[in-house]
Amino acid sequence: MSGHSKWSTIKRKKAVVDAARGKVFTRIAKELTIAARVGGGDESANPRLRTAVATAKAANMPSVNVERAVKKGTGELEGVTIEEIVYEGYAPGGVALMMEVATDNRNRTVSELRHLLSKNGGNLATSGAVAWMFDTKGVIQVPAEGNDEDELMMTILEAGAEDLSNEGDYFEVTTAPADLNTVNEAVVEAGYEVEMAQLQHIPNNFTEVSAEDIPNVVKLMEILDDYEDMQKLSASVDFTDEMLEGLE
Description:
The protein is α+β, with helices and mostly antiparallel strands.
């Protein structure tokens, strides 16, 4: 199982859906606003927006919230300007971190990230310091329950996906960045529920982490993942069940 998938599994097992829903909606709303600002509010002409709307529907986000976020992006409603920024850093044990945030205040966000990292044994890195350890891929998650893996495989390969992995309670589809929206739309049109579809930084090199550092790495990643401006978080560690034994 790949490192990024294991991190996704950790988040799923620890998540309390009702308590986390507000945070999930906030992240999706930011993506909707950014997608609409960059590509316009017409879903038919904006693949990124279509994917964001599909993710919002899968999360049962109220349609009024979706419309409001899109209108903020197109300027039909007043709102602060949100920008996307990718920060790089290190967790304990030299684990590389890629942190994609959406913020209305760059100075505040970098200051808060620096504080969270330094307080928990990590630190910010300069741009490009760890990016070489990651590939950008499209990632789509589909619930495993009630779905046939072979049939889903046929659907995604015909649409141009690269791979499909079975992560237990969900299937994870991997695509080239440019194919994310096309594959996602093919999956939805085939009748599958899509829980998440987004570009992610996937580690291509892994950092060997000591047993002593693993709890600290997981703790920092959980803290960063809960940070209000964090949209996506990746780390250069290939978590195994043995490494995580006793942490959950």
